[in-house]
Write a structure and sequence with these properties.
Number of helices of chain A: 16
Family (chains A, B): Belongs to the histidinol dehydrogenase family.
CATH topology of the largest domain in chain A: Rossmann fold
Number of strands of chain A: 14
CATH superfamily of the largest domain in chain A: Nitrogenase molybdenum iron protein domain
Structural class of chain A: alpha/beta
Oligomer: homodimer
GO biological process, one term (chains A, B): L-histidine biosynthetic process
Catalytic activity (chains A, B): L-histidinol + 2 NAD(+) + H2O = L-histidine + 2 NADH + 3 H(+)
CATH class of the largest domain in chain A: Alpha Beta
CATH architecture of the largest domain in chain A: 3-Layer(aba) Sandwich
Number of domains of chain A: 3
Order of helices and strands of chain A: EHHHHHEEEHEHEHEHEEHEHHEHEEHEHH
Distance between the termini of chain A: 81 Å
Largest interface: A-B, 129 and 129 residues
Active site (chains A, B): 323 (proton acceptor), 324 (proton acceptor)
Largest sheet of chain A: 6 strands, parallel
Function (chains A, B): Catalyzes the sequential NAD-dependent oxidations of L-histidinol to L-histidinaldehyde and then to L-histidine.
Radius of gyration of chain A: 26 Å
Strand content of chain A: 15-25%
Chain lengths: 430, 430
């Protein structure tokens, strides 16, 4: 089960917050080969690789319109209602992130503003495998639509029979995404980065995936194609005092642990008794979980740490910079300003992480692996560029001109100075 | 001079917007060696490398307090006034970018918001060389201060005598930055990324530099340290119709070209006469520029393109995605919504790029090399993380619980479902 640590010295914290290192360098040569193949052979390469990796002979790369439309009848009313509710909440929350241009006259006649402009073409990757992550499609598709991205491409690997899970098709349809390419893995990333006859090259690629997808996205950094976030295994840190409910805490830890053996789970408490009770609950709840093998392995790499008080727990959490932070403490309202590093924060005993994973409205694509020290999760901002504009009147240039000339000259950039001087001469002649 | 192209076919545009490829892979092994040296030997490595590359024997790595304070007396009143004016304008513009948390109740009892939290520690790199880029220090330091970053480290290589240009010291002092490390190149990036006894490891590194600095920053992508933007040579695209002033346009093109031989300069016009007049002006103005050798080389790689109308010019510009876009056209106000890809836009005949480079208030750290298709320039946002929060009441969980349970079950994640179910049971018992 969890590794138990009592009152670690501050000097040891740095070691405790380290995530297990992942080495994927071995994969790079193979992925570079996939990139070359897709660049050289385009759609043919996608067909060959899909046959090879997914065992599917693709005729059309894209799901047909009737295939997408059929999803509606394939899902239960209950699931459709749930997806619609989540869609609505996510839309409501992300719509508030829209920024209106504010004109600022920094000096008389010098007016500046910035404007959010959608990224033209974005690519969304949704992994296949056992769990059809339609929730991730909502988390990426809703802000892409709200931002106004002109073209949204969805790539997802086909299932054994060549079809795509109905929940993915239904969600895509709800989002107005009609381009679902049945392509997965590094070849999907290559197709969206470089373009093929069928799949247009996009400006930014979003979405989770296995290590091939993760490394492929990372390898794009030199190509000019942006990615959402550097990726790592998902993680949660729970801060629990005596007021916490041990069964709830254990359930939250397990909901993270079931993602996979490499998930990171950390429990901090100022109560040794709470730590023990959570451990007992973990044992009991784990026994009946369908994914208990994944969860048990994840727990083996996880930490239960006893600390002296809430301040220490927050300090440790800030150093760890968790993707998800759950505050199961009585005075959470008083300590909100002390949280400096986290992806998304869940407050009190009735705000489980799974609420944010699915339906409360916040995004679940978040910085892992301590990236929360410098990165934000996906939001509406991730789908726009903020372009600055300025307009200077002749009188404005007379106000600001001298400042520019003096600074440019001091930096030894005479042509920069001259671009102002030549205009000022003209203005003075008028 | 510029390469002249008349009415290129749309099929050829993709080729025309390509930047000259830069290959820096050869530098990576040497930089990796510098990284190792700094990680192993810390401050000693910084002293050795500064001796080697800058010819300076450092005693203290940091500029002394009296050295910083002395700058005030070393600058002209005129330059200090200019820096203060620019500081004030940049502050005014960036202060407007602050986002206040807005609580959204997505369902009754389910409240979500996001909050901007400063990045704890940031590192600013300012290159040395002939031009002391105190303007870049303003562009990075002002938003870092406004964001509230707790620790700001400035690295800049020392001049021949071991001192730092007074304009850099003065600007740092104005920004309240008292940690000026006399370290440059890849060793400065390594120090800020990995930390030494004297220089703390930072969470994000900002600032321009030569190819060693650029590649060093790029190599950090796997280490968890964030960087401001991927870098490339600076560039401007000017759209000029008959209403433009050829002398102003030439001055703007030259202000970009003087940055260096690899600067990118593009002029679009729907008037062959305007193109010719700008060429004549370029010749005349170039002849008297101190940095004419750089500028002449940059112009050789540059393009003057004749297109049919404003719509075509905007379409070409959007495909090119310039760092700086100058609209010297009479109806610029009517076409603002057609601009989809650009870093910063300058409107009309009296808004030279150098205004934004120095003093109008907008930031001059902008996406080059077509990164403007997906990236924004540096802003207040670059110095914060936007952390989401949520609080759900027991009644709120009753409202949203079913949605989460149904979605989690459909994704096969029973522990996610259970984190809700276990709480709902408790609520129903109350």
């Amino acid at each position: 089960m969890m590794r138990r640590i009592k009152y670690p010295a501050k000097a040891d914290w740095q070691e405790l917050v380290k995530r297990p290192t992942q080495h994927f360098e071995d994969l790079e040569a193979g992925i570079a080969q996939t990139f070359r193949l897709v660049q050289e052979q385009g759609d043919d390469a996608l067909r060959t690789l899909t046959q090879q990796y997914d065992g599917v002979q693709l005729n059309a790369l894209y799901a047909a319109a009737d295939e997408i439309a059929a999803a509606e009848a394939e899902l239960s009313e209950e699931l459709k209602a749930a997806i619609l509710q989540a869609f609505s909440n996510i839309q409501l929350f992300h719509a508030q992130q829209a920024e209106q241009p504010k004109q600022v006259e920094t000096m008389p006649g010098v007016t500046c503003w910035r404007k959010s402009v959608p990224i033209d073409r974005v690519g969304l990757y949704i992994p296949g495998g056992t769990a059809p992550l339609f929730s991730t499609l909502l988390m990426l598709g809703v802000p892409a639509r709200l931002a106004g991205c002109k073209e949204i491409i969805l790539c997802t690997p086909p299932g054994k029979g060549g079809s795509i899970h109905p929940a993915i098709r239904y969600t895509a349809s709800l989002l107005g995404i009609d381009k679902i390419a049945k392509v997965g893995g590094a070849q999907a990333i290559a197709a969206m980065a470089f373009g093929t006859d069928s799949i247009p090259a996009v400006n930014k690629i979003f979405g989770p995936g296995n290590q091939y997808v993760t490394v492929a996205k990372q390898m794009l950094s030199k190509t000019g194609v942006a990615i959402d976030l550097p990726a790592g295994p998902s993680e949660v840190l729970v801060i629990a005092d005596e007021s916490a409910d041990a069964a709830f805490v254990a359930a939250d830890l397990l909901s993270q642990a079931e993602h996979g053996a490499d998930s990171q789970v950390v429990l901090l408490s100022n109560s040794a008794d709470m730590l023990s009770r959570v451990e007992q609950e973990l044992q009991a709840q784990l026994a009946v979980l369908p994914r208990r093998e994944f969860a048990a392995k994840a727990l083996e790499n996880s930490l239960g740490i006893l600390l002296s008080n809430v301040d220490e727990m927050l300090a440790f959490s800030n150093l760890y910079a968790p993707e998800h932070l759950i505050l199961s403490i009585s005075n959470f309202e008083e300590v909100l300003d002390e949280i400096t590093n986290a992806g998304s924060v869940f407050l009190g005993n009735y705000s489980p992480e799974s609420a944010g994973d699915y339906a409360s409205g916040t995004n679940h694509t978040l910085p892992t692996n301590a990236y929360a020290r410098a990165y934000s999760g996906v939001s509406l901002d991730s789908f726009v560029k903020k372009i600055t504009f300025q307009h200077i009147t002749p009188a404005g240039l007379q106000n600001i001109g001298k400042t520019i000339e003096v600074m440019a000259a001091a930096e030894g950039l005479e042509a920069h100075k001259n671009a102002v001087s030549i205009r000022l001469k003209e203005v003075q002649h008028v």
